[in-house]
Each structure stands twice: as structure tokens, then as C-alpha cells.
Amino acid sequence: MARVTLQTIADRVGVSRATVSYAFSRPDQLSEGLRQRIMEVADELGYAGPNPTARSLRLGRAGALGLIFTETLAYAFADPYSIGFLQGLATAAEDAGVGLLILPIPHGDRRSETVRDAVVDSFCVMSLADGHPALAEVFARKLPVVVVDEPYVPGHPFLGIDEPAAAATAARHVLRLGHRRVGVAMVGLHEDGYTGWASQERQQSAVYEAMRRRRGGYQQACEEAGIDWSGVPFYEVARNSREAGRKAGHALLGRDPRPTAILTNTDVLALGILDAAADLGLEVPRELSVVGFSDSAAEEAGLTTIRQAKQEMGETAGRLLLSGTAAEPERLIFPYELIVRASTAPPPQT
Amino acid sequence: MARVTLQTIADRVGVSRATVSYAFSRPDQLSEGLRQRIMEVADELGYAGPNPTARSLRLGRAGALGLIFTETLAYAFADPYSIGFLQGLATAAEDAGVGLLILPIPHGDRRSETVRDAVVDSFCVMSLADGHPALAEVFARKLPVVVVDEPYVPGHPFLGIDEPAAAATAARHVLRLGHRRVGVAMVGLHEDGYTGWASQERQQSAVYEAMRRRRGGYQQACEEAGIDWSGVPFYEVARNSREAGRKAGHALLGRDPRPTAILTNTDVLALGILDAAADLGLEVPRELSVVGFSDSAAEEAGLTTIRQAKQEMGETAGRLLLSGTAAEPERLIFPYELIVRASTAPPPQT
DNA sequence: GACTCCTCCTTAATCAATTAAGACCTTAAT
DNA sequence: ATTAAGGTCTTAATTGATTAAGGAGGAGTC
User: Fold this and answer.
1) CA spacing 20 to 30 A to A21: which of A249, B65, B170, B287?
2) Interface test with A, best of B24, B73, B89 (most A CBs within 10 A)
3) Nucleotides of C under 7 A from a protein CB
4) Nearest-CA neighbor of B303 among B268, B256, B334?
């Protein structure tokens, strides 16, 4: 049994293909009787409705927004920050009545045609490593693109926060509380899966721009406060998980002298640090201050953090792409805010 | 400036359209020189590569899996259970190199063509209310479909757990611990936004099948234990949030006599109940036992819950749809498991 | 009766590719 | 010299729709 198309129905009813098309897309162009006849036959033949692909081709619109983020999708969905952004993006897509096409990108050096073959009208790219091949593939499509967080590509719409300033704000908060022995735990600097102490060189060669700049903010704030950055223990983890944070926490808190404050890259990591502190019987914030980032999982744990309007960012990204206005602003920098909760306090009076 | 297509390039180079197509899709069919020439001209003209829609039409495959879940997408992304499922589904999509098209469905009586126009090869439908119009729209597309959790449609692949049995297991756990004064808090029974005590009638007329059956499991277990169900306080909330759970908690714990055990529908709700208990200075589990559902947010809080293999379910759903084997099993029932943690204990010895 | 105006339907161009089959030319083998 | 075999490229059919423009017929108007 061959596929049922408009033509099949047209032949059966004895009308032209155009008539059948009208029956579906513009019923007012037909007599009611014929329309019903056509619908009956369509039903009888098991017609699945006008083929969306053909329709898409003819109309020149895909009805979908492409989203590209993070190497492994399963990780992306595990990150509260991504999820928040996704919520915003989904809201915009929902309002515009378009779908959200989430694209897996080639992992390692496996080639993939997903970006090339994605049936979308525009792309949103989030948190890609510097020079990731997927970015070039996206730009090659010559569709509207907005990049979120990283990497910033001059001449293309970008959306993010002032990373160094936000990070510096977080750092200054604990420094002003009087902390001098600061430790740092970060995730998402490299893609090599390394977990352990990060040398200065490693820190500076991070392939994720936003994280690299965030780190720069920490360093600057420390140096402003007269702290020698090379003496600041810096632990890098490969995955953004509570477990990884705990590991970093144990490493950092195992040092002598022990840091009295730990700065982190993400809330999830910070939660792990809290776990490590609990393991060691350290009282937070009396004996240890911890700062998160993004305010994505911080509230319940009473974590001091930097709040980013992730949902709003997602919504804005979506609207930008779906509004159809070609004249997008170059660079949209969103506000951030230091949220002080119960995980930070002045250092102990030893 | 008109659009650049294969033809534009062909004309410019002075070859046939087919040749240009081969240059992109099968370079071995051409002399290296000509291929390079074509690529150069393509670059020069700013060609964006073979149009994916046209390609899709010709090849008869969309390269995407459609996902439909929950009325409001932003809510869906807020639910840890959905997220877990999504992770699994994404993994399968990733392995198969296809995209995941998340479709907003019409909310209220707003009409929408998203399902009709979705460029996908198959659909995964998750947690839709009985008789939701989107379901009919999906089936009308005559593509492979798998329904997850609800609603079960005879004759179509289905994937879920034995809801009544799982719920009964949760209930029996607290009943065997000796609890007699049980309260229930559930979300996702209706779509009318109601929050408050639910009459028997309201309970039974729930439009979400899985939740309805889950409730049935609670009732059955209670009745087996000789508890009169009509005396069991049942609080219904409209949103699956910790805040809503807290509200339900206050309502249930404000009753006299106070329940010694509360069964819930989701982990998130259970966390809210714990919040309420904390508000009232009740010690868990000594004075109150709480049971969650899904093991999606339970571990850190030490919550007793029913574990569902959500990620595995997502992956299975994806593989089923992407494997191309038409002969799908009718009904795939996944195992569940009671995970006893620190939120349940025998009732106080009043 | 001639004209206009609708209503309803058809014609045919268009969207942008893919690909089997065939044509043409060169080279090699018999 | 003839035939076969390759290598390159073209022809043309195909994928499944949408829609502007036009034609046929009937109704209404002067």
C-alpha cells in the first residue's frame, strides 16, 4: 500500500490536488459538501494530514527553534542552571507556538550531521567550549543565532552576565567579611575529564570562556585584597555534581592551613562542599563560609550565591529569535545579584 | 538577493544541479577539481548547505523525535521526575543522532498546529490527561507513538509502572509500621487549579490516569488494613512544588487528630510536607512519617519513597521509537522499589 | 439579452533537494 | 581494431505540499 498523499485523495474523489489542499488549509474556499466528501475519503484512506515536511518546504518555515548546549545532553538536563534557562526558552517557544529542537552534538570526534540537518528557523547556542566545531556548523547555516554565556563571538548576538564582575562580587563578599584563607572549587574549565588541583597555567587555559572569566574575577578580587593568588588552592572537577563538590571540599578542607572560605562555580558544587564540611564536622558558617553561583539550587540550603535571571535570559533569547526582528542588539548583558544567606559569616577568631 | 540553492551554484559553475548535490553528499562521485570549484563558488555565494527541509522531504525522514508532555513546558522542566525521564530519552536520541523536538501543546482552548506540523519521525507522549486533544492529534499523524505513564490507550505501546501496586506498597510500609491515622497529599489529579480537600468523588474523577490509579492503591492498602478510607484526609494541590506541599502539610497536620503518617504523590510534595513539619516543630520520623514517590528528589532529604527507573524508562522509550523495529511490545511495565530512608518510623506511643 | 459578480474549482508554478539510470569520453585489455 | 571497463557528469523523475491566477457556470441586475 503506497503512501497516502493529497494526490491519492484527489484521484479518488475526482478533484484536483489543489482542492484537497484547500479542504485542509482553507475550508472557506470550497463548498461544504465537497469538503466533507474529501474529509471522508481522507479518513477512509487513512490520510495522516498534510505532510509537515512538504508544508515546511513550501512555506519556508520550520516552526522550531534549535537549541544546542553542552556536550552530553544528559548532563545538561542535570544542571539546574540549564534547566532554568530551558524553562525560560520553553516559555518563549510556547508563546510563539513553535517547537524546541534539542540537538545532540557530536561528542569526541564522532562526526554528526545533526546541526546541518536540523529543521529549524533559528539557533540558540549555550555554553560551548571555545572553538567547538558545532559553533561553526551553526553559523554555516546562516540562520539567526544567539549565543548564551559562551563563547562570545564578535558580531553575533550574545546574551550573558558580566562574569568577572559577578565573580569578583562574590569574592569581595567573603573578603570583606575578613576571610584571608580562601579556596576555590570550579567545574567546567576543560574537557579532558581532569579532577584535581589546577595549576595557574591550567586555570588560564580553560576552554570555557565564561568560567575562565569568572575565575579571573575571583583572582582580581583576591589580589585587590592583597592576597597572593598563587597561594590560593584551586581545585578543579570534571562534573557538576554534588558528589564532585564533596570531593573538592575534602581536598580543599584537608589542607593546612585550612581555608576559611570556599568560592565555587556553581551551586551544586557548593552543596557538595557543604556535604564535605558536614563530613568533617565543620560548622557552616561559623567555621567555614561557602559561596555558590547562579542561585539555581541554593535557596533551600541557605547558600550565599550570585543570582542570575536564568529564566528571564531564556525567555529573552527565545523572544529575540522568534520575534522576527532582524535588528538584534549586539550584546545583552543581564544583571546579577549577590544573595547573602546563611552559608557565609566572618572567619573564626583563631 | 534571491536565496542561494543548489541550482544557483550549478548555474554559476556551469554544471547540473545533480553534480552540485553530489559535491555535498557524495564527493567520491566527482573529480576532485570540480568539487573544489563547486565548494568555492558555494562559499562565495554564501550557500548555507543543502536545505534540511528539502532533504528531509526527499529522504522521507525528519531526524527528530517529538516529545509531548504536560500542559505547560516550564512546569515540566521543573519536575525532577520529568527531567530524569528526559535525560534517558535524550541519551537515546543522542546515540541515534537525532534531535529531540519538544512540543508545546495548546493550553486551555487555544488552538495550535504544533502537533500537526511537527517535523518528526515518531512521538513520545508523557503524562497527558485523559482525553486530551493533543493525544488524538498525535495518533492522527500515524507515526510510531509510545505513551509514558498515562493515558494508556489499548493497542498502542505503553510504558509505565504498576501504579496501584507501587502506591499500595508505599502505603503498606507505613501501615505495617503501625500507623493508623494516615493523611494523603496529591498533585496532578485535575486541571482546574483547585487546591484544598478532595471529596471522594473528586478523587475518583481525577483526569490523570496514573495519579488516579496511584490513589486507588493507597485506598486499597488502607482498606486492607481495616482503615475507613472516607475518614482519611485527602488534600489536593494544583502544582507540584515544595511550597504547595508545605501548604498541604499544614492543612493535614492541622487536623485533630493529627495524622501520624502522610503519603504523597511526588517527592517534591513530600519535601514540602517535611517543611511544614519543621514549621510546626514536629520531629520526623519520630512524630511524623512521610513517604514520597519517584525517588527524584528524595535521597538528600532522607525521604522514604518509591523508586522508579525514570532514566531507564526514557532510554527505553527512545530506543523503542528509534530502533525502527515496528513490532513494539504492547505494554512495558517497569519495576519499582520501595526505598526506606529516614522519614518513616513507627508512630509515636501516645 | 448582456453584463457583472460570485462561487467553486483547476491549472501550473514553486519550494529545494536526491538519486537511479544513462550518456559520453578515456583508458586498458584482448 | 574491438570491446570492456571506469570515471564524470547529466537527465529527469520524485518527494508532498501551497497558492496566485484563471476559467466555468449560475445568479442577479439593468
Assistant:
1) B65
2) B73
3) 7-12, 14-20
4) B268
Neighbour count for residue A41 (Cβ, 10 Å): 21
Longest CA–CA span in chain B (Å) reads 94
Digits of tens for pLDDT over chain B (350 positions)?
Answer: 568 999 999 999 999 999 999 999 888 888 888 999 999 999 999 999 999 999 999 999 999 999 998 777 878 888 889 999 999 999 999 999 999 999 988 776 677 789 999 999 999 999 998 988 899 999 999 999 999 998 999 888 999 999 999 999 999 999 999 999 999 999 989 988 899 999 999 999 999 999 999 999 999 999 999 999 999 999 999 999 999 999 999 999 999 899 999 999 999 999 999 999 999 999 989 999 999 999 888 778 899 999 999 999 999 999 999 987 655 667 899 999 999 999 999 998 86
Sign of the dihedral through C-alpha B31, B32, B35, B41:
negative
DSSP strands (E only) in B128-197 = 145-148, 158-161, 182-187, 196-197
Rounded to whole angstroms, the Cα distance separating B346 from A251 reads 40
Instruction: Enumerate residues 6+ apart whose C-beta is below 8 A from A206.
Output: A189, A190, A212, A215
User: How far is it, in rounded angstroms, from Cα A95 to Cα A82?
Assistant: 20
Residue B43 with chain A: CB contacts under 8 Å: none
Distance CA B51, CA B55 (A): 6
Measured distance CA(B325)–CA(B315) in Å, rounded = 15
DSSP states of A148-203: ESS---TTS-EEEE-HHHHHHHHHHHHHHTT--SEEEEEE-S-SS---EE--HHHH
Residue B9 and residue A159: Cα distance in Å, rounded? Answer: 35
Domain spanning A64-161+311-334: CATH 1.20.1440.230 = no
- Give the number of other Cβ atoms within 10 Å of residue A340's Cβ: 13
Contact flag, residue B59 CB and nucleic strand C, below 7 A: yes
Q: What is the pTM of this model?
A: 0.91
A312 chain-B contacts, CB cut-off 8 A: none
- SS3 percent helix, strand, coil of chain B, rounded to 5, is 45, 15, 40
Q: How many CB atoms lie within 10 A of CB A100?
A: 25
DSSP letter at B28?
G
Do residues A157 and A147 touch, judged by C-beta distance below 8 A? Answer: yes
Do residue A94 and residue B72 have CB atoms under 8 angstroms apart? Answer: yes
Q: Does any strand D atom come closer than 7 Å to the Cβ of A63?
A: no
Using the CB atom, is residue A58 less than 7 Å from strand C?
yes
CATH 1.10.260.40 segments of chain A: 6-50
CATH superfamily membership of B6-50: lambda repressor-like DNA-binding domains (1.10.260.40)
CA angle at residue B145 from A71 to B130, to 5 degrees? 110
Task: Note whether A124 and A318 are within 8 A (CB).
Answer: yes
Burial of B192 (0-12, 13-18, 19+ CB in 10 A): exposed
- For the CA atoms of A244, A247, A249, A252, the dihedral, rounded to the nearest 10 degrees, stands at -120
Torsions phi, psi of B206, nearest 5? -55, 140
Angle separating helix axes A52-59 and B52-59, nearest 10 degrees: 150
Q: List the single residue in A with minimal CA-CA distance to B272.
A: A300
- Strand D contact at CB of residue A3, distance < 7 A: yes
Q: Could you tell me how many residues make up chain A?
A: 350
Q: What is the DSSP string of B200-242?
A: HHHHHT-S-HHHHHHHHHHHHHHHHTT--GGGS-EEEESS-SH
Task: Give A163-308's CATH code, choosing from 3.40.50.300, 3.40.50.2300, 3.40.50.150, 3.40.50.450.
Answer: 3.40.50.2300
Grid coordinates representing A334 are 543581564
Contact A118 B98 (CB under 8 A): no
